[in-house]
Specification:
This protein is an alpha/beta fold. The protein is built from eleven helices and eleven strands. It starts with 7 loop residues before the first helix and ends with a helix. The structure holds pyridoxal-5'-phosphate. The site of pyridoxal-5'-phosphate has 15 residues, from helix 3 and helix 4.
């Protein structure tokens, strides 16, 4: 048996006729960029999360960059976030001209909210909360801190489609939130795509303008903007797939539940999960001090795996200028050497899940 870490083709096989039809319709509509499909997706996805406005953009990275610009983040303003995230969280901050300020994480891999206050300076503008692997940050506490210090919050929800705290979905806690629909995401396009969500009409209008060269109506730039539009084909695909998102998330939860209850190996530490039903299990990340051995073993057993993320951002060459060194973020750095992501996509078969559990138990 050979088990991939992720395989979009398995899902495509199931929904192929609907996808073909949606692409055909979009192609024949006579309008290819920012049209009806995009409008439908913007309203459908914002309704799904529970926000008023949605602005489709080119990628999750652009969503963060535009959101930062929309809330008036300026050159050298400070943005509090984590180093244990995908690089684009940070590259978006830099594209907006701001300075990322890193905070260490907790055992659940998200920002340690107790360390935020002492990192706040006069230059701090935003807390960029990254809901990682499908686990939400502690938003009630972060909201209180933001209120106390008059800071804005942006949620990076690239890995949190449908994840919740109580009954409130990730992406509906902050001034503005950003999603990626990169193909591997719980809701993935067949190319690059992203969206910005907000309940604030002014912010929505500003984002809409920023994604289109800073224009409102007509070919006139009111702001220095970008080309970051969502195209009709990707939106049509996302409109089909959105209907399945809850079902697919439930399947991920089922697999996670099996891993959590059936994997019994003292060398393996599980992720800290507060509430199985609220997690979207974008990734299932275990920790082990025997990672090199486990990697060899998984390769040998033909089980795919990932490492999210092997190199903490503050120690990567591109970001050395920020001034962090080894030891700056002890938990982030420790976990980077221990983590390993097991396959967890909705189309994994029962046989494959059993095989993974059995092999990990024998490791
Ligand atoms: C946490 C996080 N933030 C931002 C992004 C950026 O999204 P995109 O790849 O759509 O630019 C990603 C995905 O790559 C991500 O995982």
């Amino acid at each position: 048996m050979q088990i991939p870490f992720f395989d979009y083709k398995r899902q495509l096989k199931i929904i192929h006729p609907q996808i073909d039809q949606a692409i055909k319709k979009a192609l024949n509509s006579g309008w290819l960029i920012l049209g009806k499909e995009v409008e439908n997706f913007e309203s459908g996805f914002s309704k799904y999360i529970g926000t008023k406005y949605g602005i489709g953009v080119n990628s999750g990275t652009d969503a963060i960059k535009i959101a930062l610009r929309a809330i008036d983040v300026k050159k050298n303003d400070e943005v509090i976030t984590v180093a244990n995230t995908a690089v684009p969280t940070i590259s978006a901050i830099r594209e907006a001209g701001a300075i990322p300020k890193f905070i260490d994480i907790k055992n659940d891999f998200t920002i340690d909210e107790n360390k935020i206050e002492k990192t706040i300076t006069k230059k701090t503008k935003v807390i960029l909360a990254v809901h990682l692997f499908g686990t939400c940050c502690n938003m009630p506490v972060i909201l209180n801190i933001a209120k106390k210090y008059k800071l804005k919050i942006i949620e990076d929800c690239a890995q949190a489609h449908g994840a919740k705290i109580k009954n409130r979905k990730a992406g509906n806690f902050s001034d503005i939130s950003c999603f990626s629909f990169y193909p591997t995401k719980n809701l993935g396009a067949y190319g690059d795509a992203g969206i910005i969500l907000t309940n604030n009409k002014n912010l929505a209008d500003k984002c809409r303008s920023l994604r289109m060269y800073g224009m409102k109506k007509g070919y006139y730039s009111h702001l220095e903007g970008y080309n970051s539009r969502l195209d009709e084909m990707q939106a049509a695909i996302l409109n089909v797939k959105l209907k399945y998102l809850d079902r697919w998330n439930k399947k991920r939860q089922k697999i996670a539940d099996l891993y959590l209850t059936k994997i019994k190996n003292h060398k393996i530490k599980f992720p800290e999960i507060q509430n199985l039903q609220n997690n979207n299990f974008h990734l299932f990340v275990i920790r082990t001090d025997k990672r090199d051995g486990l990697i060899k073993y998984l390769n040998n057993k033909k089980i795919g795996y990932g490492i999210h993320y092997q190199y903490p951002i503050h120690l990567q060459t591109a970001y050395k200028f920020l001034g962090y060194t080894k030891g700056s973020l002890p938990i982030t750095e420790k976990f980077a050497n221990q983590i390993l992501s097991l396959p967890i996509f909705p189309e994994l078969t029962e046989k494959e899940i059993k095989y993974i559990i059995d092999k990990i138990n024998k490791f």
